Amino acid sequence: MAQWTFLTNHAHVLLCVSDNPNARLRDVAVQVGITERAAQRIVTELEEAGYLEREREGRRNIYRLNTAMPLRHPLDRDHRIGELLAAFANPGDPETPPLP
């Protein structure tokens, strides 16, 4: 039986990075259930589209999300990724600050 979910891998990667801004892509890939290469591709696509920024700190990346960006599907354009992240946020976790 085929499995499907309501959220895309892109949304799952955003949620992982929101939960842990200095997560290794290897760990994100395991959490999402995709390959590390797929996680790298998704992060690159999200970065190129302006949904996140990557900043190098030593040997690690720190990710900052632009929570004001709209969702991409025409039916969802009136909503921001910050709303999606807030809906799935773990209680008690600090919010990822938006990009300036």
TrEMBL record:
Domain HTH marR-type: 9-58
Top-rank taxon, per record: Bacteria
GO molecular function: DNA-binding transcription factor activity
Official protein name in the record: MarR family protein
Species: Salinibacterium xinjiangense
